[in-house]
Amino acid sequence: xxxxxxxxxxxxxxxxxxxxxxxxxxxxxxxxxxxxxxxxxxxxxxxxxxxxxxxxxxxxxxxxxxxxxxxxxxxxxxxxxxxxxxxxxxxxxxxxxxxxxxxxxxxxxxxxxxxxxxxxxxxxxxxxxxxxxxxxxxxxxxxxxxxxxxxxxxxxxxxxxxxxxxxxxxxxxxxxxxxxxxxxxxxxxxxxxxxxxxxxxxxxxxxxxxxxxxxxxxxxxxxxxxxxxxxxxxxxxxxxxxxxxxxxxxxxxxxxxxxxxxxxxxxxxxxxxxxxxxxxxxxxxxxxxxxxx
Length: 293
Fold this sequence. Notes:
CATH topology of the largest domain: Hsp33 domain
Order of helices and strands: EEHHEEEHEEHEEHHHEEHHEEH
CATH superfamily of the largest domain: Hsp33 domain
Low-confidence stretches: none
CATH architecture of the largest domain: 3-Layer(bab) Sandwich
Shape: globular
Distance between the termini: 48 Å
Oligomer: single chain
């Protein structure tokens, strides 16, 4: 199943729009991390929003990471994206089980927690990365991204994210939307947008009723003219490698590497993002020890 982000402008270029379909990508992440339904929703929403934010980056080598740390049992969610459509993520505790909310929906806010921070780090190839952060407002993810854009980037934005989990715990629909009000936007456009957002159906409901992306955007941007600028495929991709983990082992230092060799005679490292296991035997560790010296 193809996953993609559409970039568009609307209301005579007063609005910037990002719309993502991420059903297959979120299902892949669910399988990798063996997440429970509520964690699937939390991780899926974060991956979707991060993928759209990746499309806002300018340089090919730019990278963006989003860290959500709340006081709920999930503990931490981390997602990383670039402008080329690659995204990856993991969650500290994938096995959280919570009762449904009173409205019958998954309690993502309860899993993530309401006390905590969202931290966004942008590596733009400069000496120092850009770091922005904001307090969590609900733990429901979409509102937290909205708050981040408002407080940290001073960019008025509406964020809607949805992950619909099926009875067999697989992902039935997943997607998201970011609408940003551009500078000098006319007041009547902002008022009209606010009214539309109040009556906007859930993203997963729109995805169930419409097939083509143009149809979905027509529903979302009802009453607005819009123009699709481009559509980019996004993929769940991990860039871990033996070389990267060798560097990690060297960085622990000569003393710790010696202890590893003497006590265990080997090492096994697991990538957080894709759960790939890397085994280093004694000879390999001895070579790394020489480099550490």
